[in-house]
Every structure is written in structure tokens, then in C-alpha cells.
Known about the structure:
Blueprint: H1 9-30, H2 35-40, H3 49-73, H4 75-90, H5 103-114, H6 123-148, H7 162-165, H8 169-198, H9 210-221, H10 230-257, E1 265-267, E2 274-276, H11 278-312, H12 321-332, H13 341-346, H14 348-365
Helix pairs in contact: 1-3, 3-6, 3-14, 4-11, 6-8, 8-10, 10-11, 11-14
Amino acid sequence: MGGQSPEPLARRLTHHIESTYHDHEKESEAKSTPSEVIKDASPPTIRPANSRAMDALKQLFCGGVAGSVAKTVTAPLSRLTILYQVHPMVTTKENRPKFSMTLSGGISKIVERGGILSLWKGNGTSVLHRFPFSAINFYCYEGMLDILNPQRDADDDEDINDDTREESKFSRLIAGGVAGCTACVACYPLDLVRTRLTTQLDGQEHYKGITDAFVKIVRSEGFWGLYSGIGPTLMVAVPSFSISYMVYGSLKEYALEDELFYNLRKVDTKTGEEKLGFKLSLMCGAVSGTLSTLVTFPFDTIRRRMQIQSLHYAPGERLTGIQMIARLFKKDGIKGFYRGLTPEILKVVPMVGSMFTVYEFMKDRLNVK
């Protein structure tokens, strides 16, 4: 979860529409002094509401495609991370507490058991999860920033300076946490199914696919079985998105203001506005993703184990989140919570890089401003 680079899509879209509208207003006022000019001046073109709505949908579609491609590119590392995290629960060999001693050995083990495509097992569910998750996350984040910073919408008030309009680090922290929590609860069943499909041993599959998994989980565990492990998951999602949004936003501001990064910025040829270039976006996203991963990874290990324990433990043997933490610490110590951290960290840069590249490509193809 920590590998995502937050890009507030809706805010950029809204800002672009509003700034265009205000530019037309000022231009119209400037031309309105002589009566001759009034007759010849054409009224400002204001985009219809349905056009704005279409642009918003295009923005979300671009974000969804970019997230899905990034998930697919890094799926082998994601599956390897999960197998490391839950291996002691699924292995039948007590003397093999680790899935593999090396990353290359782990990948070879997956390929030997199920072929090259098994590296992407569960990725279909992950892609289905990405679209609604991204949409909910973006809109909740922007909505919370508007609530916490009412002055963000006061662009036409000359008495309010630019510093006042900038959201604080604290508001980013809160908005990111609320957005992550909301998106996580709404899309959690897909995350649960993805984990169970990913951890199935080849030749011992319990589920035939996504639909079969949903049906069997509800039938055997009830509706709330789809939310098994939601507690530890929220303990991952809330701080993860809070840290990601806060760190990414702060680094972005610093990169756009400090002359050290002048040559790495991208300048809009039409407006002259400075933006993050590819390298700066990659750097900011990698730092924020890595930091949030280091902080939340222990809880991610616990949530993965709780998501699959109903497949391996009888009802009376299943553990609560606190019990799972105590058992893991007693058996493996602190290092047990960070098992699988290496592939998780390694996937941050390719995930952020592929997401940013595909997002920009899709915006150009769909003519999104």
C-alpha cells in the first residue's frame, strides 16, 4: 500500500477550470471601458457543466488505468511479499519458516510450481480493486481538504493571500487518513479475495476464481467474513495514506521552491507554470512510499495473516489481531513482522514510475488538461 504516489487529480481539474473562468472575467472587464470595444468584444467562453463532468471522468479513468498498469507491472514482487508474510501459516514443513532464502530463489520457486503466469496470480482482483479504490480515495482526500481549509475555494478574494490558501501538513495528514480509511472499508472484500487467491498453493486451490471465492466466503463465514482482518488493515491504511499524502505534498512544495531542483522541473509552455518533472515525481513518490511502508509494514503482515487464517485454522483456533501480534512476536521476534520487506521496498520505484508514465500518456491520448 505504501507504493502509491498520491496525485490529487480532482483538485488540479477544479483549479484549471476556475482559473480559466477567472482569466476570462478579467479579460472581459479590461475590454469593457470604451463603448466601441464593448460592442466588438466577444463574451468569455465558459465550458458547459457536462464537459467538466466528462473531464473529471477522464481524469479518474486515467488514474485507474495508471494504477492498474502499475499493479500489474509490480505483481510478481507483490505476490512474493505476501508469500513471505504468510508462509509459516501455509507451509507443512516446520523447519522451513521462510518461503525462500533469496528473492531470486523465491521467484524461481513460484515459477517451478505454477509456471511463469503464476507470478500474476490474484492480479485480476487487484486490478478490479484499483479503479473504485482510486476514485474514492481521490474524492475523499479533496473533499476533506476543502472542509479543513475553506479558504482553498476563495481564489477570487483578493484579501486572502496565497500562503493562506495553501493547505497545512496537518490537514494533509488528516485528509489522507480519512480518504484511506473510507476507500479501504468500501473496497476491502476485493482486497481479501485477492490475498486468498494469491496465497493458494498450486494444486491445492480452494477457490476457482473471484466469483467462486466471494460465494464460498459468504456461504462458509457469513457476510462479515468478507471483512475478516479489517481492524489491522485500517491500522495500515490510515497511517499509510496520511504519511504518503503529507510527505509527498511537502516534498513537492520543497522541490518547486528550492533552486537546487530548478533543472529537474517541467515548465508549462502555455502558462509558464512550473511543475514536477518525471524525475522529481519519481523521487517524491519513492520517498513517501518507502517511508509509509517502513512504518506500516508490521501491521500489513498481521492483516495478511488474519485474511487467510480461516483457510488454515479451525473456528476455535482463530486469533484476534492482538493475539496474532503476540504469537508472532513470541515465535519470531521483531524480524517476523518485517518478513517480505525487501520485495515490498523494491517495488516502490517501478510502481511509481510506471504509474506516472502511464498517467501522463493516457492524459495525452484523451486530451485531458
